[in-house]
Amino acid sequence: MSTLKNPKFQLTASFIAMMMVGNLQYTWTLFVEPIRAGRSWQLTKIQLAYTIYIAIQTWVQPLSGWFIDRIGQRPFITVAGILAGIGWSSIGYATSLPQLYIFYGMAAVGAAFVYSGSMGSALKWFPHRRGFASGVIAAGYGGGSAISVWIIGYLIRNYSYQTAFLTSGIFQGIVIAVVAQFLLHPDKEFVAPKAASPVIATKSRKGADSFTSIEMLATPQFYILFVMFVAVGTGGLFLTANSGSIAKAWGWSSTLTAVVSFGLLANAGSRPFWGWVSDKWGRENTMVVAFVLQAASLVSLATIGQTSGVMFAATLILTYFTWGEIYALFPATVGDYFGSKYATSNNSFLYAAKGVAALIIFLLQYVHEYFGNWSAALFASAILALLTALTAFAIRRMPLPTKANQNSR
Hints:
Blueprint: H1 7-26, H2 28-39, H3 43-59, H4 61-71, H5 74-91, H6 97-125, H7 130-158, H8 161-180, H9 198-203, H10 213-216, H11 220-250, H12 256-281, H13 283-303, H14 309-321, H15 326-338, H16 343-351, H17 353-371, H18 375-395, H19 403-407
């Protein structure tokens, strides 16, 4: 087997690409207050850029995923390096809100290509360990920023936020474009690595059919998963955008870089950890436990997180650790329910739920403004996470989708 066709090599290459685009989302919170001070723009209007980024980054993926399934990820991720590099570098020089939205949106298209291509590749190369593989890829998206926040924080403090955007954008764009040249999908001769033990194979329910995206969209299971993703994704996305502003409001700004870094490490670590757990316990069972813990963590952040810098850090880290797993559990579940053949496209349709969640967090900005505090939005997010846990418990009792059921309608 050549190196390029080694599943571990492909997983590593995709992981590196995901590390680069993860910065576009997870370091944004460090820029919000400097942009606010430098441009005197309203916080809600600045954060609309984040909503636009999430929406584009997710809603482009169904179309890009369809093409990537059929022609491969290399050309798309090459273009992604150009878009992400130019878009992110240009944000610091935006002199109007429309320019801010356009540049961040350009970077979002690049991130969409990388995310759909990398996650789909993991599901194809590791069909027997989807939870772990999708967790590793998702960890790249969340984990790379744990290192870069220190670099970007340094550049903002000692130079300017414009310099931080420019240098990180150029670096990320080059790395993505280079890594793209090594990416492949498995060919017809590929033999999937077998599961480490039969226990793993029996815990996660797996359908026997491979569904196209059109066929998947005709199943009720897809829409249940979609709504679940929207609901449980809201709290973490809200924190990703606003943790810097929350820290400033509660008086913990001095610890922001460290807290964000450790929070991102927890976010990244949660993905392979909960993915690995789901390979053993089953996807839905793992969702119930993780989402209940997510609700409890959000409540803790809203209450005892305000009492001290230590408690703020601890509860924020716990919140990230019980939220990041959605980016491993849901892709793995899609692969289990609907098969590997069209995994890139199918997962991209489900991932579009993140864009809907972004619209909700924009509404939560107004909840914050109305009540004059951050707790109301955090409590609302906790309720959504708890409801999602109950839904995961219910969907476990539903039969898996089959093409036979579709044909009988």
